[in-house]
Amino acid sequence: MKKKGFSYAKWGYIFAAPFIIAFALFMLYPVIYTLIIGFTDMKGMSPSSVHILDDLFGNFKDVLSDPLFKKSLANTFIMWMLNFIPQIVLALVLAAWFTNERMKLRGKGFFKVVFYMPNIITAATVAMLFYSLFSYPKGPFNDILLSLGVIDTPYNFAVDANAARLTVAFIQFWMWYGYTMIVLISGILGISPDIFEAADIDGANGFQKFIYVTLPNLKTIMLFTLVTSMIGGLQMFDIPKLYLDGGPNDATRTAQIYIYKKAFSGAYMYNSAAAASMIMFLIIAVFAGVIFFMLRDKDEAAMHKQIRQQEKAYKAKLKAQKEGK
User: Fold this and answer.
1) In angstroms, rounded to a whole number, what is the distance separating the alpha carbons of residues 11 and 1?
2) Which own/partner pairs from 242-247 qualify as long-range (CB within 8 Å, at least 24 positions apart)?
3) Spatial distance between the Cα atoms of 258 and 237, rounded to a whole number of angstroms
4) 24 and 32 in contact (C-beta within 8 Å)?
5) Rounded to two decimals, what is the model's pTM?
6) Residue 281's Cα: distance from chain center in Å?
7) Are 200 and 151 in contact (CB under 8 A)?
């Protein structure tokens, strides 16, 4: 845009420059450097010389054939699904509850703060809290189960693989359902009130409005929630690391803990860690693409396809007319 010979375009570049520079230094450069390391033999505390491997994808093959990486990847998916499914269900219920005008709920702000509170507590604090709650032989949770007669002797949750996975999944659920609830509430409040009024006129009850009005209009917000949860879930690190350090018997070892231990413990195998990082990057990118494809607006996609076909037919017609002349 120009006015009296003065260009405003450069100011856009000037204001965007700090972000572009910061992104290039702290995001883009590390990603490219990690990708390069994945094709080398870099390892050890201070590698003296680094060479590109003869078998360019050797590190990637080694990681993919490593049983521990496969187990870590499986643990990551299991714990993500165990926390995401109840998280999205409860968040939807709470969002519908808070946005229901008929209920005349009092103290909405207080409840929103309480439900969101776990999300602002540091991961280290949460890990220590739950470690104390499930401590053995004396701990609040063991004391409750003993007093209710559910168990006869104290139970060591830290040595049971299934109990450890469920605990980590519950912690992730407890920390993030409030955030998901707030996002969904903002999405519901963005739906035009006219649609709900039309549903009321047609005689729809609360459940029918939620299923046939609220959910279809939340598709974009649900897509955002699902993609961000998937990315965060597959990058799960802090709670499993701080709570049980990936134990017991690697039951809570996630892909990120696998990468961390490869890079910063033992032989310091930076090459394998970089290869595993890029594999996780590809997995996340593929899953995100699948989610976007499955939740796309089919009507809009069909309309764009029809427009492209019309443009193609029009160009073919013009070409035929020119050749006819």
Assistant:
1) 11
2) 242/123, 242/124, 242/127, 242/128, 243/127, 243/130, 243/131, 243/167, 243/168, 243/171, 244/158, 244/164, 244/168, 247/158, 247/164
3) 10
4) no
5) 0.84
6) 12
7) no
Kindly state the DSSP code that residue 316 receives in the 8-state scheme.
Answer: H
Collapse the DSSP code of 6 into the 3-class scheme (helix H, G, I; strand E, B; otherwise coil) and give the result: strand
63 burial type by CB count under 10 A (0-12 exposed, 13-18 middle, 19+ buried): buried
Structure tokens at 281: 């990057």
Q: Give 56's DSSP letter.
A: T
Beta carbons of 66 and 59 less than 8 angstroms apart: no
Tell me the per-residue pLDDT of 260-296, one tens digit each, with 9 for 90 and over. 999 888 778 999 999 999 999 999 999 999 988 887 7
Longest CA span, the chain: 95
Write out pLDDT tens, residues 22-59.
999 999 999 999 999 999 988 887 777 888 888 889 99
C-alpha–C-alpha distance, residues 7 and 13, integer Å: 12
In 3D space, the residue among 276, 267, 111, 272 whose CA is nearest the CA of residue 177 turns out to be 111
Q: Which two tokens stand for residue 221?
A: 């917000």
Tokens of 23: 């992104």
Which structure tokens are listed for 151? Answer: 């168990």
For residue 140, whether the previous peptide bond is cis, meaning omega lies within 30 degrees of 0, is no
Mean pLDDT of 140-163: 88
Q: Which is nearest to 156 in space by CA: 250, 247, 258, 257? A: 247
Positive or negative, the CA dihedral 42, 257, 276, 120 is: negative
Task: State the average pLDDT over residues 192-203.
Answer: 86
